[in-house]
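To fix ideas, we reproduce below a protein record of this kind.
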Amino acid sequence: MEKQCPWKLFFGKWNTMTLIAIAVGAIVFGLLMVLGNVPLFSGISLSMAMFVPVVIGAFFGAVPAFFALFMGSIAMDMLIVMGMNFDYAVGFGVLGLFVGALPMYGARVDKGVFTLGHAVVYVLFCVVGQIVAFGLLTPFLTSTFYYYRFWGYNVFESFIENIDQISVLVVLGAPLLYVIAKINKRDQFSEHIINDSGI
């Protein structure tokens, strides 16, 4: 497989398809944050919106995943409160960076590459991303820009409120990436056979 600069993999390939994917991802993320919650038990539900950074990150990279979630969070706020929560928009965007960093550590899902080792690193990135985005960054921005309670309380509250996202990213996201990689690997193998046979 051709080796690429890590920063190019981080920023992703920018073209018309990437812009369309970000726009569609943002719309889907916003809608699923409002309508795509699957209740488990009292006060706990799983947000299907977390599939968006997994898919966008797998095919387009970390920065496109950031913009899809950042813009999607703004769209969600417009649908619900007719305003914008800048703190949470940035938090979701940063989480998208961590989730979408797959190519940075060799998980080229679009090329059919996603091993057990990649899955372990992916899980670690998701957990760290959740801690940075909603355990540190979002509470800091909330306290700084909105003067809402004190920072220490916001850290606990924000992290607990969004911990269900980890469940979707880890329990459902990793198997989804494995399936997507397997499909892409099979398709590339079939294409290789066709090209070699001159069909």
Summary: The chain has eight helices and two strands. The beta strands are 37-41, 44-47. The domain at 6-191 is CATH 1.10.1760.20 (Arp2/3 complex 21 kDa subunit ARPC3).
